């Protein structure tokens, strides 16, 4: 599992590839904690290459969303598919975290949000 953070136009873009899970990716939570230590207010998770995630992984994503919201920022998840999409639909987390069909539309949503603020 790879966690690949990049930044462009004030948006921290985290691409997740493979399968999440504590045993498989001990660096995921650490990477997110490091991102949250900064003044980041716009966070985009690209889940297009993510095959599986656990409840512990959901907790990390939710904690990130709460931390960003406390900074008056926004988190967008994009490109959910298969099992990962099902998890977010069943848990109704799309009420708390915005979900977008593509990276481009997710970035536009984050940029639009910052202009409105």
Describe the structure.
- The chain is α/β, with parallel strands linked by helices.
- It has one domain: STAS domain (Transcription Regulator spoIIAA).
- It is 43% helix and 30% strand.
- It is built from 4 helices and 5 strands; from the N terminus they run ββαβαβαβα.
- The chain has helices spanning 27-37, 55-70, 82-90, 103-116, and strands spanning 2-8, 11-19, 42-52, 74-78, 98-100.
- A 5-stranded mixed beta sheet has the order 1-2-3-4-5, sandwiched between helices.
- Strand 4 (74-78), helix 3 (82-90) and strand 5 (98-100) form a beta-alpha-beta unit.
- Helix 1 (27-37) runs parallel beside helix 2.
- It starts with a strand and ends with a helix.
- The model has no long low-confidence stretch (mean pLDDT 86).
What attributes characterize this protein structure?
117 residues; alpha/beta; 43% helix
What's this, in brief?
The chain has 117 residues and is of the alpha/beta class.
Spell out the CATH superfamily. STAS domain
CATH architecture: 2-Layer Sandwich
Rg, rounded, reads: 13 Å
Strand content: 25-35%
- CATH fold name, please? Transcription Regulator spoIIAA
For the record, the CATH class is Alpha Beta
Number of strands: 5
| Gross morphology | globular
Extract low-pLDDT stretches. none
